[in-house]
Design brief:
Largest sheet: 9 strands, antiparallel
Distance between the termini: 128 Å
Number of helices: 9
Shape: globular
CATH topology of the largest domain: Ubiquitin-like (UB roll)
Structural class: alpha+beta
Strand content: 25-35%
Organism: Cryomyces minteri
GO molecular function: zinc ion binding
Protein name: RING-type domain-containing protein
CATH architecture of the largest domain: Roll
Number of strands: 17
Keywords: Metal-binding, Repeat, Zinc, Zinc-finger
Number of domains: 4
Pfam families: MORN (PF02493), zf-C3HC4_3 (PF13920)
Radius of gyration: 43 Å
Length: about 375
């Protein structure tokens, strides 16, 4: 047997105990004579050249190729089996996981819970809780609080604002997304007597007003209580007493639509005795409850001069009352343009009713508000 045949046989005997032949030739530089030439590329391999060390991850990935190349049932290659287990896999560095929000990938949601009690004016934190996105919000909060006391639910959006959560809604039906952990506020319901007592002393029944006041107390503490005149170009006019930033006590308020009210306020609502002059000249002088005519009052129509004096309930005439007519009711139905036909048309889109259909179709601007008339709509009155 020649020397070359012996070398080939020796290489075959040791094939199972070392790396594959292509790796041995590529990695073992001692088998290549100094200054030899590659027959295919005709390139000189200089071992004296300073070569950078082979990266560890390249060796690891090469080992994976060698192991995968072994047929099923064949013995494990000794040089590969001696490597640590973690080096037989891709050791590339993975990017860090994104920060967890209130809505995770497992179908759960993590939220913070607070409760607001209007009677004691306290906003209490109850910690954080995790639940399934398919669970109902009201049922989950009731189980956490362990109470049968009725409450309303709100989602805190900012430090000074929150939005109502509709009843019978699930967590995945509400907008709880975003980078911040959602905050749910349960506002306990109060009776009418407690509500009246809370507002009378200048406190807040709703959590939304309470949150706004807490922020104003930090940012503008000097203009929350006392007598002020608020006359800004982009805001409604008010002159009178303020309590915790709201109209409370006696004052005068002029709205954007030019309605003017002078009288008693309770936490931004017309409440008590007061006189209101509407933009069209009509006047109501009497008692108010929560911003509506309620009790006893006198209403005077500026257009006709007719005066109603009597009972009111939630903004409507109610109970006993007396009307002094200066213009008959049938005359009020006459067209205010031709005074011949009956008032039977409404201007669209302002909604004013003051003309017959024939006159309404001829005008381009409403005679009351001067808005452009888009169409005339015929009305059918039910007697």
């Amino acid at each position: 047997m020649s020397g070359s045949d012996e070398d080939d046989e020796t290489a075959l005997q040791h094939a199972g105990s070392g790396p594959p032949a292509f790796l041995e030739v590529a990695l073992n530089g001692s088998n290549i004579p100094h200054g030899s030439r590659n027959a295919e590329t005709n390139a000189v391999i200089d071992l004296n050249a300073s070569l950078p060390p082979m990266p560890a991850y390249l060796m690891d990935r090469t080992a994976v190729v060698a192991v995968d190349a072994i047929p099923n049932g064949a013995p494990t290659v000794p040089w590969a089996s001696g490597l640590p287990e973690e080096t037989l896999h891709d050791t590339a560095t993975h990017p860090p996981l994104p920060p967890q929000t209130g809505d995770d990938h497992l179908g759960n949601i993590y939220f913070m819970l607070k409760t607001f009690d209007a009677e004691s004016q306290t906003l209490k934190s109850h910690g954080g809780y995790s639940t399934n996105l398919d669970d109902r919000v009201d049922t989950t909060i009731s189980e956490i609080l362990g109470t049968s006391r009725p409450f309303e639910l709100f989602r805190e959006d900012k430090l000074s604002a929150c939005y109502a959560i509709r009843s019978n809604r699930r967590f995945n039906q509400e907008d709880f997304g975003g980078p911040q952990i959602p905050i749910v506020i349960a506002q306990f319901s109060v009776s009418d007597a407690v509500r009246e007592a809370v507002t009378a002393r200048g406190d807040f029944v709703g959590v939304n007003e309470y949150l706004k006041y807490r922020c104003d107390l930090i940012n503008h503490p000097s203009i929350l209580n006392g007598f002020f005149t608020l006359d800004y170009f982009s805001d409604e006019y008010y002159q009178g007493n303020l309590c915790k930033g709201g109209r409370h006590g006696h004052g005068t308020h002029i709205a954007f639509n030019n309605d003017s009210y002078t009288g008693s306020f309770v936490m931004n609502h017309r409440h008590g005795q007061g006189r209101m002059t509407l933009a069209n000249g009509d006047v109501y002088d009497g008692t108010w409850v929560n911003g509506l005519q309620h009790g006893h009052g006198t209403f005077t129509e500026a257009k006709t001069g007719n005066v109603y004096t009597g009972g009111w309930k939630e903004g409507k005439k109610h109970g006993e009352g007396v009307t002094q007519w200066k213009v008959a009711a049938d005359q009020q139905k006459r067209c205010q343009m031709c005074y011949e036909g009956e008032t039977e048309a409404a201007f669209y889109d302002c909604g004013h009713v003051c003309a017959c259909l024939a006159c309404a179709r001829r005008v381009e601007q409403c005679p009351v508000c001067r808005k452009r008339v888009l169409a005339a709509v015929k009305l059918y009155f039910v007697t």
